[in-house]
Amino acid sequence: MIKRNASLVLLVAIAFSSCLTGAEETKTAQPTRHMTLQEAVQLALKHNHNIRIAGYAVEEKRQAKQVAKSAYFPSIRNDSSFLHLTDSQLIEINAGSLGVAGGNQIPPVSNVLQQGGKNLTTSGTQITQPLTTLLKIKRENDVAQAELKASHEKAQLTGNDVALAVHQVYYRILIAQVHRSATEARVKASEELQSERVEQVKFGSILEQELIDSRAQFLQAKQELLTTDLQLSDLTLKLNDLIGLPLNTALDLDTAVSDVQPPCVRQECVRAATASHPEILAARAEVEKAQAAVRLTKTDMWVPDVEAFARYSYQNNVPFLARNFGTFGIHFGFDVFDSGRKKASLHEHEAQLSEAKENLAKLTDEVELEVETAYNKLERTQQMLKVSEEVVSLRTESSRVMQQRVLQGAALNSQAANATAQQYDAKALLLQSQLDFLQAQDELLNAIGRTPE
Questions:
Q1: CA-based end-to-end distance of the chain
Q2: What is the DSSP letter of 314?
Q3: How far apart are CA 274 and CA 271, in angstroms?
Q4: What H or E segment, with its residue span, contains residue 326?
Q5: How many angstroms separate the CA atoms of 227 and 229, rounded?
Q6: Which of 335, 332, 336 is nearest to 131 (CA)?
Q7: pTM of the model as a whole
Q8: Which of 386, 378, 383, 434 is closest to 264 using CA atoms?
Q9: Cα–Cα distance between 349 and 343 in angstroms, integer?
Q10: Is 292 within 8 Å of 143 (Cβ atoms)?
Q11: Which tens digits make up the pLDDT trace of 316-344?
Q12: What is the dihedral of CA 228, 229, 234, 235, to 10 degrees?
């Protein structure tokens, strides 16, 4: 009875443990998400961290432009103070110091007058409109506008780079999946060869060394399969990170990738890139920014600060001032001597302008080189694609002939399995050639400055 109860408790414990394990696996399992290339690119453009950071940088420069623009308009400021004096000056008026009238002294006796009080209150509201400084403000606005334009182009460049990275990882996953199918076919062929050679060794038709060799081939194929699985896992993690999905999301990638024709001929591509590439446009904006900074420094050197202002003031206990009064005037300011600060600042901005121009020339040459390289790759991959198509055709025919020979008893199953594996390898190479060709098109679009779709 005790043994029976113990067995019952053990079975209940095992069943409960199995239920918990199953519930945990159900909880942690992630549903597979079907994904097309276009959807992956759109998710990346919406959720990628680099693109969001670039968007925040654009918003930062947009607000900085608004700050610079606000300097055109008059400012209104209130200044209020409360002061307590430890002592105040007294004025003594002696008797008769103001004269004599009708034989009486004015004042008849000496008096001590206190000026104001010890607690003072002042408050004034002033409106100020810059006049000659409007020239400086315009230069500052030019600088802010150039920075905003550069941030726009850099954000576009970031989007292009992220879209290209999504394309590249997407293609690599598809290639790895087909390569895995080919590797599985080689594993199956190795198993067939292994079983056949075991029988052949028993009958003495082959040496044991060949059996060892077939075993090594089988293990190498298994090792390649494990390597491919690890590569697929890493690529899936990278793609999830690029498009902003949880890293453990299982993806089912759509193999239907649209073929995009080259957008232009070689020379037209070069001209389009130099005219509209975001990196070149950003460099041009940096040149404009440096030019505006030079103009601002020159204006600051020779143009004085002239401002018109109007102020309404209130005071309490301040001597010799009315309680409420107004002030109107013009303020003029000019640095007579600044120890060479403005001149050194001008030379600094001129050096920055020369640097920006040289950087623009450098980037223009780099973009032209990138377009030429991408176009060369496009032509080479197109030729490789044609060769891969011929290889697939030959491997398919070879596999068909080998299957017929197996049915006729003229060939072994391992030979047919090996022919099938070679056919899968050829298809994998064909897909890789196709995706390499598409990737070359994407790189050409990116080199021109367009976003790969």
A1: 73
A2: E
A3: 5
A4: strand 324-333
A5: 5
A6: 332
A7: 0.67
A8: 378
A9: 10
A10: yes
A11: 888 878 889 899 999 888 888 878 888 89
A12: 70
